[in-house]
Amino acid sequence: MNLAVVATKRSRLRVVAMTLVVIGSLSAQTEPAGGKWTYRFVADPMRDGYGHHEFTLLADKAIADGPLSGTPVLLITCGKQWSGTRIDVPVIIDSEQVEMTVDGKRSGIGGLHSWGVSEDRKSFFIDDSSPIALGPHGPKNTKEMLQGSDVRIKFSAYPGHSFVIRFSPAGINSEMLTKACGAKLAEVKRK
Fold first, then answer.
1. N or C: lower Cβ tally within 10 Å for the chain?
2. What is the CATH number of the domain that holds 39?
3. How confident is the model at residue 128, as a pLDDT?
């Protein structure tokens, strides 16, 4: 093998290795946030001292629809003047209508809610989460979920399937949540 080819391959490998080290150092580190929750702060690369906080909770088990499968994620995101809650699912959402129970009790009118859906139809936006914390009722559904220990959400997926996602949100560190998201969201009162 030609020495110039070997040197070029080594240079490429060094560049790839250095790129991976830089990317790894830029990614936010997660830490426990009580119960089954994790927390991370994601820095804004364009503005020093800015960024957002993320609290993440995986569903109790994965869901699948043919080749589409994965574990749904409940994500609470907070910035300086805003917050939002969404649920990411691995399947295509068919309807904005969901049914929710918290600790076995129906939530909302007959358990029904109408949540926003992302353009790719793989995320629910809870409490009109863009931005939710500024409205008169604040993050009502999010607070209700945080107060429960067994949250179940039933939704329709394309084509004609329905799924039930189960989350166990009990145990979130309310001090961390208050510090990151403010008191309006973190008013978690156990029943």
1. N
2. 2.60.40.1880
3. 53
Residue 8 lies in a domain: no
Exposure on the CB side of residue 31, measured as CA atoms within 13 A: 8
Tell me the CA distances in angstroms from 11 to 4, 7, 56, 74, 190, one per residue in order. Answer: 11, 6, 39, 42, 58
- How far is 170 from 151, CA to CA, in rounded Å? 10
DSSP reduced 3-state for 171: coil
Q: Of 11, 46, 42, which Cα lies nearest the Cα of 27?
A: 42
For 44-146, list the strands marked E by DSSP: 51-58, 63-65, 68-70, 73-78, 83-88, 93-102, 105-106, 112-114, 116-117, 123-126
Q: Evaluate if pTM is beyond 0.85.
A: no
Residue range 148-185, pLDDT digits in tens:
999 999 999 988 889 999 999 999 999 999 888 877 66
Which residues contact residue 111 at a Cβ distance below 8 angstroms, ignoring those fewer than 6 apart?
99, 100, 101
- Collapsing DSSP to helix, strand or coil, 32 comes out as strand
- Element housing 41 (H / E): strand 38-43
The domain of 139 spans 29-186
What's the rounded Cα separation, in Å, for the pair 15 and 98? 48
Q: pLDDT averaged over the chain? A: 78
